[in-house]
Design a protein that fits this description.
It is a single chain. This protein is α+β, with helices and mostly antiparallel strands. The protein contains 1 helix and 10 strands, in the order E-E-E-E-E-E-E-E-H-E-E. It has one helix spanning about 105-155; strands spanning about 10-25, 25-35, 40-45, 50, 55-60, 65-70, 80-90, 90-100, 170-175, 180-185. Strand 9 (about 170-175) and strand 10 (about 180-185) form a beta hairpin. The radius of gyration is 47 Å and the shape is rod-shaped. The N and C termini lie far apart (about 120 Å). Mean pLDDT is about 80; it is low at about 160-165.
């Protein structure tokens, strides 16, 4: 059962105000706590308390602030838990940090697997898109080519004379018998 102790007026439980981690030559993590009285701070690595007398830990207490920094010279194993805790008699506050090593072969393998999977999915999507659009593209090309061919044929063919007859004009027929030639006018 969780019990909350209400601090007397002017006193405050420990509260984590800020935290950060950076990786340069070594991994450094810092936590800042506020509380009245000033919180006691400590670090836990893999479930074990790292004492204040450890050279990896630097702590400064300027009431009501407590600041602590841990510097890890060796790269942690993948999934290592690092806990920053601030505590006074009215409460405690902590932050759990899960460390991931950039040198881990598992992290590199996961990245390569994800990259390969992304490439495969990209190729599949591109192929499907190409296969779906090919009939549309081919139809458009055929339609355009048929229009171009029709225009070229129209330009190359000689203009045909107008073969239509005017019904108002009489047509003359010529009949030539073997003995002589006679001209006959007929109406159409």
């Amino acid at each position: 059962m969780l019990q909350m102790v209400v601090p007397p007026k002017g006193l405050e439980p420990a509260e984590l105000v800020s935290s950060s981690c950076s990786l340069k030559k070594m991994l450094q993590c810092s936590c800042s706590f506020h509380g009245v009285p000033a919180p006691y701070v400590r670090w836990w690595l893999k479930g074990d308390v790292i004492g204040i007398d450890n050279p990896q830990v630097t702590s400064t207490i300027l009431a009501p602030w407590s600041n602590t920094t841990i510097s890890l010279t060796e790269m942690p194993e993948m999934g290592t838990h690092l806990l920053c805790e601030g505590k006074n008699e009215y409460g405690n506050h902590a932050m759990n940090i899960i460390l991931m090593s950039i040198k881990s072969p598992l992290a590199t393998q996961s990245f390569i697997n994800g990259l390969f999977q992304g490439l495969v999915y990209g190729v599949i999507a591109t192929t499907l898109l190409f296969l779906c659009l090919t009939p549309c593209i081919m139809g458009h090309i055929r339609k355009t080519l048929s229009k171009i061919i029709a225009v070229i044929k129209a330009e190359r063919s000689p203009s045909e004379p107008n073969m239509a007859l005017n019904p108002e004009e009489p047509e003359k027929s010529t009949i030539m018998p073997s003995s002589g030639s006679k001209s006959v006018d007929t109406l159409s």
